[in-house]
Specification:
9 helices, Arc Repressor Mutant, subunit A, transcription, mainly alpha, Tetracycline Repressor, domain 2
């Protein structure tokens, strides 16, 4: 009986925490990073003391939002990697489109994730590291199995992709004329990402035809 009660309590806590994060994202997307804990509590239809029982302060809540965004991006990349469809160009386009949707549709959340707003630098680096791991796996998928070329390092090229995308996103956020165009972001980034992936393939001793459909069996 006690174990069942404890399990229900834990489930309820997880659901409430998810509800509070959802409310925080909604308010921050409307009001920006300066949104108050009072406004977030009101959006979640709870009292401020209830909000503070789950998050000690706004920095802790921001960290939870950052983790949610990180998980969403990593899950999107994993989906592209485990269910590859079409050519390498199409696969990379899908990956970039998912990220572009975040920075255009949820710019404040993207800033929390990748620019460290009220987020310790070490945590921001950890967020990037999680994304980089998925990008490295995607590059390995596109290049194939380069076991005969030990100098190939997918993580090195993944770091280049992540760095290029991060730098472009930072510029995008500062440029109002382009901040609302996910398609334009993808169009500009695709040649850069293609060049990096082509370099990875060359290191692995293979050539990628970006327009040729892949035939891949994913375990």
């Amino acid at each position: 009986m006690g174990d069942a009660r404890t399990e229900r309590w834990a489930d309820n806590r997880v659901r409430m925490r998810r509800k509070l994060i959802d409310a925080a994202i909604q308010v921050i997307e409307t009001e920006g990073p300066q949104a108050s804990m009072r406004a977030i509590a009101a959006a979640a239809e709870v009292s401020k003391p209830t909000l503070y029982r789950f998050f000690a302060d706004k920095a802790e809540l921001t960290l939870a939002i950052s983790n949610r965004a990180k998980q969403d991006i990593a899950a999107g990349l994993a989906q592209v990697r485990t269910h590859p469809e079409g050519s390498p160009a199409a696969i990379l386009n899908s990956a970039l489109t998912g990220y572009a949707a975040l920075i255009v549709e949820h710019p404040h959340i993207a800033r929390f994730l990748f620019q460290g707003t009220e987020n310790p630098a070490a945590r921001t680096l950890e967020n990037w590291r999680a994304v980089r791991v998925e990008v490295a796996d995607l590059i390995t998928l596109l290049v194939g199995s380069p076991s005969a070329t030990p100098e190939f390092d997918a993580d090195f090229y993944a770091s280049m992709v992540v760095g290029a995308v991060k730098g472009a996103a930072n510029w995008w956020h500062r440029t109002a004329d382009h901040a609302d165009s996910a398609e334009e972001f993808v169009r500009r980034m695709e040649p850069v990402v293609h060049a990096i992936v082509a370099g990875a393939a060359a290191d692995a001793g293979v050539t990628i035809d970006f327009d040729k459909p892949l035939t891949i069996t994913v375990p």
